[in-house]
Known about the structure:
Two copies of one chain form a homodimer.
Chain A: H1 3-31, H2 43-60, E1 64-68, E2 75-80, E3 89-95, E4 115-117, E5 120-122, H3 130-147, E6 155-161, H4 171-177, H5 179-182, E7 186-189, E8 201-206, E9 208-217, E10 223-224, H6 235-244, H7 267-275, H8 280-286, H9 300-306, E11 309-318, E12 327-328, E13 331-340, H10 346-356, E14 366-371, E15 378-379, H11 385-398, E16 403-407, H12 413-420, E17 424-426, E18 442-444, H13 445-465
Helix pairs in contact in A: 1-3, 1-13, 3-13, 4-12, 11-13
Amino acid sequence: MSQHVDNAVDAVRTYIADHRTAFLDDLSAWLRIPSVSAQPDHAPDVRRSADWLVAALKDTGFPAAEVWDTPGAPAVYAEWPSDDPGAPTVLVYGHHDVQPAAREDGWNSDPFEPVVRGNRLYARGAADDKGQVFFHTLGVRAHLAATGRTSPAVHLKLLIEGEEESGSPHFRELVERHADRLAADAVIVSDTGMWSEDTPTVCTGMRGLAECEIRLYGPDQDIHSGSFGGAVPNPATAAARLVAALHDERGRVAIPGFYDGVVELTDEERELFARLPFDEERWLRTAKSHGTGGEAGYSTLERIWARPTAEVNGIGGGYQGPGSKTIIPSSAMVKLSFRLVAGQDPAHVRDAVAAWVPGRLPEGVRHEISFSPATRPCLTPLDHPALQSVVRAMGRAFDTPVLFTREGGSGPAADLQDVLGAPVLFLGISVPSDGWHAPDEKVELDLLLKGAETSAHLWGDLAEHWRHAP
Amino acid sequence: MSQHVDNAVDAVRTYIADHRTAFLDDLSAWLRIPSVSAQPDHAPDVRRSADWLVAALKDTGFPAAEVWDTPGAPAVYAEWPSDDPGAPTVLVYGHHDVQPAAREDGWNSDPFEPVVRGNRLYARGAADDKGQVFFHTLGVRAHLAATGRTSPAVHLKLLIEGEEESGSPHFRELVERHADRLAADAVIVSDTGMWSEDTPTVCTGMRGLAECEIRLYGPDQDIHSGSFGGAVPNPATAAARLVAALHDERGRVAIPGFYDGVVELTDEERELFARLPFDEERWLRTAKSHGTGGEAGYSTLERIWARPTAEVNGIGGGYQGPGSKTIIPSSAMVKLSFRLVAGQDPAHVRDAVAAWVPGRLPEGVRHEISFSPATRPCLTPLDHPALQSVVRAMGRAFDTPVLFTREGGSGPAADLQDVLGAPVLFLGISVPSDGWHAPDEKVELDLLLKGAETSAHLWGDLAEHWRHAP
């Protein structure tokens, strides 16, 4: 590391140490607002949270910060242009709404009264996602202080959603409506985590998601399994056979065309994944599962991060109550979700599924299939210059080499990639023990401040190494 | 037909015609008692129905008629010994409880106010089963009148259950408790139907029934299909694969040992089934189904009457509500029922199923399996002398050749066969249009009286051709 960088690291670290108390006080004030988007009672709190954030961003120095209304809960938008007109534009994404939480769910303290125990800050939203949004405010101040600048080295934009915990029902529409103002060269999503306290990582992509519900109809009503059983098709059997046919004997999805376009893992990616200190027993405990399984030829991490899947989320048909009922059910249904990886087109997958189902049904069973709006996969190649900047910034903050992960889940980030046509990078400092959506959610204070350090280093690095969008 | 038989036919027919009005009046009085065993409100009515029947049987001439209590609804027992000590003993089975019914379900008249429209008697229980129990009272009187006897030609016993429409929860216990008094050479079940108005048939057997519920457990709780999907086993998928594996590609049940002991159809039986005027389109309408399917190499009637089956009565797992939920469910379940045919031992089938399941589950999915009490199949060979008597008696009543059916369902008759060690014969005059369990249940008056004629001819024929139990 050069002296120049060393100095910057020290300057950032000093600034952040000096402002730690005020930062935590402010964050705590925000965490006290129970901005639970899923509970209508809390709608005023979600609005209060948005207003609070607008004020905080103005205090931080953002020349423009405003509430963006949606038909649901409001988002917050802010921008701080660089005085360098040729600098890249970066959009930070996060959310200010939180999951429901109540003391009686098993919290050791009031979820909306932040408290520090040990070196952890406990509160609903501490990690998901207020803490990770808010470290950027400290980060940009540290960036300015350490560099002597009066505006960020990049054109900085923030979009902080208010409905992420409710499934982002209006997010895409919001992004489309404001696409001009949101235009960016790269999107930084700060709503994820890293491998562990000791292993900082950058997430390079998320899987996409296509979902459908298939309803199968047999007899016009439930019929007697004695009088008719063995001679007419049973839609529950048909549903089961459909699900059983989803995978071949090697665990690959057996729907023709499903893998079309899949971007295969590179040797480098596989090698980098393999460097992560992965403890399968421990992972199984996290997964609350009792065995691994899946596509042959891939490791567990490769399966959840880089391979597409077909999963049954729900199946139902016939009598499910206590005891027995000797019927052939009149209908059955399955809910399927397909995780998609880079290169897969959700519309193509949808067509492949829709084309596959009818041929697998017996005569006398008709079907209906409905698809939910899909989420595209996103993936930033390891050699992308913006990704390299994130890695360097994080490396400076953590003083340790940064590895790579991906995210098996899917998120609204893909809408940003889609609408804005910008690569999405994931910068998160949460760790698996933070308890997202669970009682006693917390954030590690050291990591929170490392997040601010990373943010502080990132803007200058981006401006230096990525003068213009490719 | 001999002159002797002709005379007997005429004498029986004349007696029945002469007593038709009183018989229908009495039956109507019984039908007015809403003996709905499934509805606790009607418990006093079920008892009233039993008391009414005891009185009616005594009026008929049965020297002994009594109510038999159970922990649920009461049964009625009656006996009328023959003055011929060497005569066979026959036990008639039926039930005096009825399905629920309410005018607003779609009845054109009060279900408990019997009414004759055209040549049909409409009331709940008209066919199922009061009408078919009651024709035996007229039958035995006609038998005595036509033969000049003062007691029946056979030792006649009646067991009329009060909980058949509630699943006969105490029937087996009742039969076991009274096995000595119920001892018989043959059981005549009058709780079934015949092919059609124009095609009188005798049912020669019922399928048995084994039922189980299989619960599959994967992760300890529902887990995120993005974070974990593709790398851990999904119990809903496992449930589906289990169901899909139940049958091979020829529609045969694929559980090893399932077919052990199955009595195959004889050529004669197949030929006799094939003589029935079967209209598959019409049957499909009755089945409210839109296609046939099942074990290759068998006709629809063979499939429902004479072949064992595996059916899914219920399947469930994961999220079944509106919309989607991206989870790997923690558990799933399937309810299976197996119809069994003669030669199959329910305990052996149970063992075969229990042995088959574990080997079909992936690592990380554990299971629990529970079986309901099973019902044995029953089948009387075509050449059984008692069956031959039923065929002749019915032939005399209907003046037309009698064909054979079986019943795909399963019933408490099997308990009689089991406990008493006697063959079970089915003598029913109901037709498919009678609307069992449906609004506007009715019985065809002509057929009801043919039932009484059959009953009148049967006792003498049995005594003549089957002097002693084999």
